[in-house]
From TrEMBL:
GO terms for molecular function: calcium ion binding. This is Autotransporter outer membrane beta-barrel domain-containing protein. GO terms for cellular component: membrane. The lineage of its organism: Bacteria, Pseudomonadati, Pseudomonadota, Alphaproteobacteria, Hyphomicrobiales. It comes from Mesorhizobium waimense.
Length: 136
């Protein structure tokens, strides 16, 4: 190989379009996804990136840079995902399929009824402003 030339399949003098990247396969609901960037090479500029498959809601790809990021909002297992690059002459290449698992957030919410109160010494205030529960 001559110095300064990259290896790869060439079609009509142009290296075939390819895509690479290392997906982060775990995430947590309502927390920023660590993300990754898909990188295209070969083909004909410009490149446009898109998501393939049913991704977790809240995760997107920057169509110009290939950066995958966001905050997933729904826990679950999302299989057969990929990132596709399309070049300037409509050739495409996809990352190998992978799965992302979104865990349930550690934060919990509790429903409280207006009459609930905390057991303590002294008057107990209900959840209704300005009202007290008389236990005497």
């Amino acid at each position: 190989m001559l110095p300064g030339f990259a290896s790869g399949i060439r079609v009509g003098g142009i290296r075939a379009l390819s895509i690479s990247g290392t997906p982060v396969t775990t995430a947590t609901e309502d927390s920023a996804y660590a993300g990754f960037t898909a990188v295209a090479s070969g083909g004909t500029l410009p490149y446009t990136y898109s998501l393939v498959g049913l991704w977790p809601p809240g995760i997107t790809v920057n169509s110009g840079s290939g950066a995958v990021s966001g905050t997933p909002t729904t826990p679950g297992t999302y299989a057969s995902l990929s990132v596709r690059v399309t070049d300037g002459v409509a050739a495409t290449a996809d990352l190998a399929a992978f799965t992302i698992t979104v865990a349930v957030s550690g934060a919990t919410s509790q429903a409280m009824t207006p009459s609930a109160y905390v057991n303590s010494n002294g008057p107990r205030q209900s959840m209704l402003p300005g009202t007290f529960i008389n236990e005497a």
